[in-house]
Recover the amino acids of this structure.
């Protein structure tokens, strides 16, 4: 299921966030061994071989070795762009022992301590439109840890695997959502099923388009 930045992008833009250069997904920890068995398999009719790299908190899945098409960047053990695959599982949370929580679990089975969500917020999963696909994701309440009324640039570059050279406060990364919309970035309307975006017509003026995504 799409997760974290992937879910946020689906809810706000119907696809990746404009600045994002990876996709976050999550699978239940009970499927970990099956997932790891599939790493390195050839998919898409034999045309694509997936590469997998185990990081400390997630697996990175990427297009395997091939000709340099100038759209992939090599790092130590993996290529960018990639999909971050997180594991989640219902586990005890000591701060609230009487409440059921879904927690992020590292590939080694330990919890990260970073993210925990009420089970009733996480499940049941919902349908999201994401770049022409219908994907499952956690309940929308999970994304409310973000301020959905504000737009921010990214503070980290996955292609280069580097933060900005100087420490930048998050407030300094805020950008005008309306300005993004006016130059053509799509936004999802409140119904969660309609993409609205602006396109410059032949006369040079911007026209608005609303498209139902069919969820």
């Amino acid at each position: 299921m799409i997760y974290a930045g992937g879910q946020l992008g689906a809810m706000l833009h119907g696809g990746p966030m404009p600045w994002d250069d990876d996709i976050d997904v999550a699978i239940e920890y009970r499927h970990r061994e099956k997932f790891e068995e599939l790493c390195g398999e050839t998919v898409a009719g034999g045309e694509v071989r997936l590469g997998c790299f185990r990081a400390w908190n997630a697996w990175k899945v990427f297009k395997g070795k091939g000709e340099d098409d100038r759209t992939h960047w090599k790092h130590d053990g993996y290529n960018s762009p990639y999909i971050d695959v997180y594991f989640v599982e219902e586990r005890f949370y000591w701060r609230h022992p009487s409440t059921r929580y879904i927690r992020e679990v590292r590939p080694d089975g330990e919890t990260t301590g970073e993210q925990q969500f009420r089970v009733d917020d996480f499940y049941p999963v919902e349908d999201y439109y994401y770049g022409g696909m219908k994907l499952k994701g956690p309940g929308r309440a999970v994304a409310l840890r973000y301020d959905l009324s504000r737009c921010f640039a990214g503070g980290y570059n996955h292609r280069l695997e580097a933060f900005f050279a100087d420490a930048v406060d998050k407030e300094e990364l805020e950008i005008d959502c309306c300005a993004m919309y006016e130059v053509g970035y799509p936004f999802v309307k409140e119904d969660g099923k309609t993409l609205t975006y602006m396109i410059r017509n032949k006369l040079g003026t911007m026209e608005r388009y609303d498209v139902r995504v069919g969820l």
Residues 176-215 form one domain.
